[in-house]
Design a protein that fits this description.
Distance between the termini: 31 Å
Largest sheet: 5 strands, antiparallel
Radius of gyration: 17 Å
Number of domains: 2
Number of helices: 4
Strand content: 25-35%
Helix content: 10-25%
Order of helices and strands: EEHHHEEEEEHEEEE
Number of strands: 11
Length: about 210
């Protein structure tokens, strides 16, 4: 078992993380799948994608119930079949993260800082957002912005949101962990504010939000 942690976050929010250290056969023994899940698993040709799929189920059954089943809507947003919890899922590198809540909307995103994100920053950084000029912190700062916007995108059900135009992160100084503010502004959502938490774990950035 490669459970990293399960933690209570805020009120009625549960955050879990799994590190994939097992091979396919080992991880498959950790989970109980129904027929539809087996069919979906068999459609994945990528080995890493299969491991991600299994790690989500392994983590979920520890967090709540081995009988919990994930289904997806037309935009591929995950839900629990019995609607007992709202769920958000993220994968990066060898890690899987799940955020759950019975009563709140949830979003979580994790990214491994593997490339020069500054090359694509103009696609998602808004002119109103501030990025540190400190080159030692700049890449990390950009990754926090990216993860925060992915989190907002997920929590708002992917409603036609443009990362640069509609998802805005308020200025902040990057620390090893902290709280940031952001808002969503488009034709459907009028400057709705969100409070997000972030933490740096070695080469990874993790951001989550419960609202």
């Amino acid at each position: 078992m490669s459970l990293v942690f399960i933690k209570e976050k805020d009120k009625d929010c549960k955050l879990g993380m799994w590190e994939i250290t097992e091979d396919y056969e080992e991880l498959a023994k950790e989970v109980s799948l129904d027929d539809k899940e087996r069919e979906r698993l068999e459609t994945f040709r990528n080995y890493a994608r299969k491991l991600e799929f299994l790690s989500v189920r392994a983590l979920l059954q520890i967090m709540i119930d081995s009988r919990a089943r994930i289904v997806y809507n037309r935009t591929n947003k995950p839900y629990l079949r019995d609607n007992s919890y709202r769920i958000s899922i993220s994968h990066s590198g060898n890690y899987t993260a799940i955020l759950l809540s019975r009563t709140k909307r949830v979003g979580v995103d994790m990214e491994k800082m593997t490339h020069r994100i500054s090359r694509i920053a103009h696609y998602f950084i808004n002119p109103d957002e501030k990025i540190t000029p400190d080159e030692k912190k700049m890449r990390y700062h950009l990754y926090i912005h990216w993860c925060a916007k992915e989190t907002l995108y997920k929590i708002c059900d992917k409603n036609g949101l443009n990362f640069r135009k509609n998802l805005i992160i308020c200025p902040f100084e990057p620390e090893d962990e902290g709280i940031i503010q952001g808002y969503v502004d488009n034709e459907m959502i009028n400057k709705e504010n969100y409070t997000m938490h972030y933490v740096r774990m070695d080469d990874y950035v993790l951001v989550w939000c419960c609202k």
